[in-house]
Design brief:
heterodimer; A: about 120 residues; mainly beta; seven-stranded mixed sheet; globular; B: about 100 residues; four-stranded antiparallel sheet; about 0% helix; about 50% strand
């Protein structure tokens, strides 16, 4: 059974950093592209970033380019999202997901990030 | 590409045939998926590439459409279908619609 378990969310002040993790199991992690997708009441669902199966290529939405970094450790079957220079508009539940071609096939339960002073 | 879903709220009875609409601001070329999100849960993939049913999804769910206009149909509504449904396009970037909340009468 596919399992994706996010962690690392919490309350952080604007301008600070946070690193999210996603522990994967039940499938061959190193075979798949992975993504982060976020959801907030104000903006709804938004794709954030994608990393291909071996980590050699990454893609970001414009609003997080230069601030967020997606990475993976295939030996640990873990996906990461390093979030720097956080803004209030980054407040959301962050989901990791298995990306098949261009759609998100399986999602974790999410971790809440709140950016507020 | 912006996606407009309608209606935003739909109330229907168990056994009803339900149709949800998603309209793109540009041609989506059938690169459209549908997700179901139940309260407190993560979104779940129902359909990809307009009409391909994801593994394990009941056959009462189906998708159709072309160009800018797409539809998710539930042939016979079950009580467990209470959820918000999102369309998602991947023809040009990745964007989600704002959702249709489906209530059971």
């Amino acid at each position: 059974e596919v399992q994706l378990v996010e962690s690392g969310g919490g309350l952080v002040q604007p301008g600070n950093s946070l690193k999210l993790s996603c522990a994967a199991s039940g499938f061959t992690f190193s075979d798949y592209a992975m993504a982060w997708v976020r959801q907030s009441p104000k903006k709804g669902l938004e794709w954030v970033a994608t990393i291909i199966y071996d980590g050699s290529s990454t893609y970001y939405r414009d609003s997080v380019k230069g601030r967020f970094t997606i990475s993976r450790d295939n030996a640990k079957s873990t996906l990461y999202l390093q979030m720097d220079s956080l803004r209030s508009e980054d407040t959301a539940t962050y989901y990791c997901a298995i990306q098949l071609r261009d759609w998100f096939a399986y999602w974790g339960q999410g971790t809440l990030v709140t950016v507020s002073s | 590409i912006q996606l407009t879903q309608s209606p935003s709220l739909l109330s229907a009875s168990v056994g009803d045939r339900v149709t949800l609409s998603c309209k793109g601001s540009q041609n989506i070329n059938n690169y459209l998926a549908w997700y179901q999100q139940k309260l407190g849960e993560a979104p779940k993939l129902l359909i990809y590439k307009t009409n391909s049913l994801q593994t394990g999804i009941p056959s009462r769910f189906s998708g159709s459409g072309s160009g800018t206009d797409y539809t998710l149909t539930i042939s016979s509504l079950h009580s467990e279908d209470l959820a918000t449904y999102y369309c998602y396009q991947y023809n040009n970037g990745y964007t989600f619609g704002s959702g249709t909340k489906l209530e059971i009468k």
